[in-house]
Amino acid sequence: MSKTKLFFPLVVLLLALSSELFPQQLQRPKLVVGIVIDQMRYDYLYRFEPYYGKDGFNRLKNEGSNFTFAHYNYVPTYTACGHTSIYTGTTPYFHGIIGNDFYDKSLKKMVYCASDTTVKTVGSNDKEGQMSPRRELSTTITDQLKLATNGKAKVISVSLKDRAAILPGGHWPDGAYWYDYETGDFITSTYYMNSLPVWVQDFNKRKLADKFLSGQWTLSKPREDYQSLGSDQSDYEKDVFSEGKTTFPHAFDKVKPDQKYGSLESTPFGNEIVKEMAIAALVNENLGKGKETDFLAVSFSSTDYVGHAYGNYSYELQDTYIKLDLQIAELLKALDKQVGKGNYVFFLTADHAGLDTPHFLKDHNLPSGELNSRAFSDSLKAFATRTYGSTRIIENTSNLQIFFSRDEIKKGGLDLHSVISSFSNYIRSGFPQISTLSTRTDLEGRAASRESGDLILNGFNPARSGDIAYNLQPGFLPTFLNTGTTHGAPYSYDTHVPILFYGWHIPKQTVNTPVYIVDIAATVADLLKITEPSGSIGIPLIK
């Protein structure tokens, strides 16, 4: 037998043994980047597409995975709930964030989702930083990454809104930073650290907010590119900057001094500041440069403020998205430079969508209207007095929920389920603006699911939610809006959002089968080969 014939089997044997003795290192991306665009409807990917460049939204859509029929699977569709559901892979039923603000039964008062008086502001002398994720009941995908790497992975979260930085960052981030409306700086809390990193201090010294306040908000494109929307001057828009008009250009010289930093939230400059902060975090924290996968969570909030103020058929909203397209392109360019194209996973979605401008709908005879929250509350009190002799049986009404006082029910020798039943029958018979109603009796003993069969159930938290929850008819609001728009409903105009995945091991594909917001965290966990968050009910989307 020749030496060659002996040598070849020996090499094969050695290679086989080496793979057994020295297993290949698990392949993971260097960085995960999560982008949440506040109040972005799915159709904005296409409505404004003629004005987008090739390197922002279109790069993600054309080179990545585009899930065209992605929906929220619960109600209410609010900012805090949305951000939490994206990163926990579950619904308020398990993660407990049932609103931006919600009624705390033990404290017997409304509480903010991220407020925490046990911590202090870092980076300012005001109270804007008294925040933490302690009310978030499930782990996040960012928490799971920290757990999987024994804390070695870096997790940084950035947003204008405190809740949009805090809730995605989870319970164990290396930093969560949000915008201080008093100073125009980025701050954090002592939950995370006792002093700002030098790079954040240096970023704040750039005084970007002051720079933008000294200028104007002007259109990105020729005016004729916006004229399909109608007139720039519109009764459906709020005069945000006290200019006496709602037309371009917008200046800040008439804004009250104590409101100037806050006014930037309703402009593309708010997104620009966040984009610059995200790139500063990428560079200065050396994200994607270590042995473990890192995570950068970024939420662009100005789209929400612009939508609330101007509505979704305004020059202002279109221009905000045109500028955001460029800002996303700049972020992608920075990622390519710092981490390398193909070395990071990038996903983009929204925390909720938004109703067509209600006043516009009404003026064009399209379904819209209001419950009139004050009149509804007064009617409930009158019913309570007639039926039970006191209004105190109603402890709280908020977020389309009714909470009954256990103390008053016990004092009156009443049965809770009978009280719930009598109120629900009264509401069903007297308020045609209400489309669906569920009671604690209906919901207890059932659990949330990935599918959207019962959106009230998926948004119901047994410990925190009220005794009656209800939805309004499509297009209806608790209180009507004459300007701008809002969100919170269980209908497609509020639930249909983009889900785009791009980058490392992401195929180019367009998928129109139903998927849900809770699938994002499960997808990231599957890509990283780590455990999904503790309350996760989603499934991986990338095959």
Fill in the CATH topology of the largest domain. Alkaline Phosphatase, subunit A
By DSSP (H or I, 4+ residues per run), the number of helices equals 21
Return the average pLDDT rounded to an integer. 96
Shape label:
globular
Radius of gyration: 25 Å
The class by helix and strand makeup works out as alpha/beta
CATH class of the largest domain: Alpha Beta
Strand runs, count: 21
Unreliable residue runs: none
Strand residues, percent: 15-25%
How would you characterize the largest beta sheet? 11 strands, mixed
N- to C-terminal distance: 48 Å
Q: Give the count of structural domains.
A: 2
> At CATH's second level, what is the architecture of the largest domain?
3-Layer(aba) Sandwich
CATH superfamily of the largest domain: Alkaline Phosphatase, subunit A
Helicity level:
25-40%
